[in-house]
Amino acid sequence: MFEAALPTLANRFRAIALDTLGYGLSDKPQRELEPEDYAQSILDVADALGLDRFTVCGVHTGATFAIQLAIQSPDRVGALVLSGPPLRPPLPPGAPRRKPRMKPPPPPREDGSHLSELWQARWQVAAPIDPKIFQKRFLTAVMTGDSAVSAYHAVYKYDLTDRLKLISCPILIVYGDRDVETPNIEQVLPLIPEIPTHVIPGGNIYTVDLCTEAWCAAVGDFCIQAFE
Fold first, then answer.
1. What's the Cα-to-Cα distance from 22 to each of 17, 152, 187, 204, 228, rounded to whole Å?
2. What 8-state DSSP symbol labels residue 88?
3. What is the distance between the alpha carbons of residues 95 and 80, in angstroms, rounded to a whole number?
4. pLDDT tier at 127 (50, 70, 90 boundaries)?
5. Where residue 95 falls among pLDDT bands split at 50, 70, 90?
6. What is the CATH architecture assignment of 6-104+150-226?
7. How far is the C-alpha of 226 from the C-alpha of 222, rounded, in Å?
8. Collapsing DSSP states into helix, strand and coil, what is residue 16?
9. Is cis: bond before 128, omega within 30 of 0?
10. Nearest to 196 by CA among 227, 175, 224
11. How far is 11 from 6, CA to CA, in rounded Å?
């Protein structure tokens, strides 16, 4: 997710990218994890690396865990970047908890048609993008298997809009104007007018890949200002 951005960010910061538990090359959870579990895993890595105070940046589902980490460890998180966060208007009292719509990859078939099915489903929300870049994301999804949806069960445990109000550190919301989350984000922004936002033209769910320089500039400038 952050591979394209790391070289540019590294010109200004020590930039570290983590695999979310259950994704990439990380271990696959043996139980359904909660937002607190994902947040603690980030803190464990920070402890192992000797990081005292740092900025946390999360994209989509990762934004949920970044928010949770800032709430759990306000003394450690100096600034928070939420890229395409899955914000929703707060639920009315007594309303049932939101449920994820993400589905796991289809099971393998002898003719390989499951791969084409998964490719087309994900391409619809990613294009236009360099097929070589998209293929790397696609192969990661295939490799992750059933764990590909594990984090989504934790994403909707809390109403993030309300939880943002529990955070004291500086926050930036950055998103592409074609991101699948953009309509929801723009619906929520009037409820959190004190949080600055940065819209990247042409960005979608892969804004970091498609608009790397613009994304890094927005995030980098914010981080510098947050720690001044």
1. 15, 11, 31, 24, 36
2. -
3. 29
4. confident
5. confident
6. 3-Layer(aba) Sandwich (3.40)
7. 6
8. coil
9. yes
10. 175
11. 9
